[in-house]
Structures are given as C-alpha cells and as structure tokens.
Design a protein that fits this description.
The protein has about 70 residues and is mainly beta. It has strands at about 1-10, 20-25, 30, 45-50, 65-70. A five-stranded mixed β-barrel has the order 1-2-3-5-4. It is globular, with a radius of gyration of 11 Å.
Length: about 70
C-alpha cells in the first residue's frame, strides 16, 4: 500500500550513514535506495512510497520507506 509523507530529509550518522525522512508529525522513516536528487539534508519534500516490512537495516531508525516519487516543497 502506498503512503504519502511530508517532511524533511536528514542524513543520519548511524553505521555507515543513512538517509531519512522526518515527517511533520515526528515519525522518522529510513529511506530505501533513495534517488540521488533526494539525498540533500534539509530538503522539504512530499514523498510517495511504500513501507517495507520485509526489509531489515543496520541503522534501524524507523520504518523503511521505498520511494516511488517525490516533490520538493518550496
């Protein structure tokens, strides 16, 4: 099932480092293979994607979100 999340991109220094989306309501999603254009700390975005319950990560900072598309919020 696809979800839409609005928030801010952050680089988390956990393990080798990972990219995260911190939603407006405070939920941190770990981004799974984010596109290069999304890898910018401080970027405000709306991301559409799927939460992947079948993936475990080293960082384990929150639900894993596989990005399908995104839009930058001005």
């Amino acid at each position: 099932m696809s979800i839409q999340v609005e928030g801010t991109i952050e680089r988390k220094a956990v393990g080798t480092g990972t990219w995260a989306l911190v939603s407006k309501d405070g939920v941190t999603y770990e981004l799974h293979n984010p596109p290069a254009d999304l890898k910018q700390s401080g970027l405000s975005v709306v991301v559409e994607g799927q939460v992947r319950d079948d993936i475990m990560t080293i960082a384990m900072i929150g639900p894993v979100l596989e990005v399908k598309s995104f839009n930058v919020v001005k």
